[in-house]
From TrEMBL:
<comment type="function">
    <text>Endonuclease that specifically degrades the RNA of RNA-DNA hybrids.</text>
</comment>
<dbReference type="GO" id="GO:0004523">
    <property type="term" value="F:RNA-DNA hybrid ribonuclease activity"/>
</dbReference>
<keyword id="KW-0255">Endonuclease</keyword>
<dbReference type="GO" id="GO:0043137">
    <property type="term" value="P:DNA replication, removal of RNA primer"/>
</dbReference>
<feature type="binding site">
    <location>
        <position position="108"/>
    </location>
    <ligand>
        <name>a divalent metal cation</name>
    </ligand>
</feature>
<comment type="similarity">
    <text>Belongs to the RNase HII family.</text>
</comment>
<dbReference type="InterPro" id="IPR022898">
    <property type="entry name" value="RNase_HII"/>
</dbReference>
<keyword id="KW-0464">Manganese</keyword>
<dbReference type="InterPro" id="IPR024567">
    <property type="entry name" value="RNase_HII/HIII_dom"/>
</dbReference>
<dbReference type="Pfam" id="PF01351">
    <property type="entry name" value="RNase_HII"/>
</dbReference>
<keyword id="KW-0540">Nuclease</keyword>
<dbReference type="GO" id="GO:0030145">
    <property type="term" value="F:manganese ion binding"/>
</dbReference>
<feature type="binding site">
    <location>
        <position position="17"/>
    </location>
    <ligand>
        <name>a divalent metal cation</name>
    </ligand>
</feature>
<feature type="binding site">
    <location>
        <position position="16"/>
    </location>
    <ligand>
        <name>a divalent metal cation</name>
    </ligand>
</feature>
<keyword id="KW-0479">Metal-binding</keyword>
<dbReference type="GO" id="GO:0003723">
    <property type="term" value="F:RNA binding"/>
</dbReference>
<dbReference type="InterPro" id="IPR001352">
    <property type="entry name" value="RNase_HII/HIII"/>
</dbReference>
Length: 193
């Protein structure tokens, strides 16, 4: 069972992002504030869950959270400011759109660049330790996966309906055959040399 909060009786928002290692599409982040007494044994790092479980948990999280928000940084922003800064931008946008202001942020990873004066702590593998970060990872992944599945209909041949933009064999084969599309990140090495 993941921990509910770092400190009891404090409004803590867990934050996580998804899509940093993809060759295309936005980087997406979510921020989630869970009730202190909230517990769900199924909530875990989104990468460890099946697609069906993530989708079920997404509805559960949205219904039970005190607040939740999802935001992205575009491909153009990724190319302009780099993927790390775009990840921070997406997280800050998610935090900014929460309808409840958190007193503290739990950030998945080892670095963060805040734009708001909210205290925070970076937690490596936080999505396997804190329920709010795991919930954020689930919302971000479900949202981004849905977007990439829709984009796969507009841009067939890259396998996005399965790989959601990650550098799989099918995706790279599509790049070799079709070349990049407008959703590919120009600042990334799309094909091995």
């Amino acid at each position: 069972m993941l921990l509910p909060n770092l400190v009891p009786n404090r409004l803590e928002a867990g934050c996580d992002e998804v899509g940093r290692g993809c060759l295309c599409g936005p980087v997406t982040a979510a921020a989630v504030i869970l009730p202190e007494d909230y517990a769900n044994e199924w909530i875990n790092d989104s990468k460890k869950l099946t697609k069906g479980n993530r989708e079920r948990l997404t509805n559960e999280i949205k219904e039970n959270a005190l607040a939740w928000a999802i935001a992205s940084a575009t491909v153009e922003e990724i190319d302009e400011i780099n993927i790390l800064n775009a990840s921070f931008l997406a997280m800050n946008r998610a935090i900014d759109t929460l309808n409840v202001k958190p007193e503290f942020l739990l950030i998945d990873g080892n670095r963060f660049n805040p734009v708001y004066d909210i205290p925070y702590q970076c937690i490596v593998k936080g999505d396997a330790k804190y329920a709010s970060i795991a919930a954020a990872s689930i919302l971000a992944k479900t949202h981004r996966d849905e977007l990439m599945t829709k984009l796969a209909l507009e841009y067939p041949g890259y396998g996005w309906e399965k790989n959601v933009g990650y550098p799989t064999k099918a995706h790279r084969l599509g790049l070799q055959t079709l070349g990049p599309c407008p959703h590919h990140r120009k600042s990334f090495r799309l094909l091995p040399k």
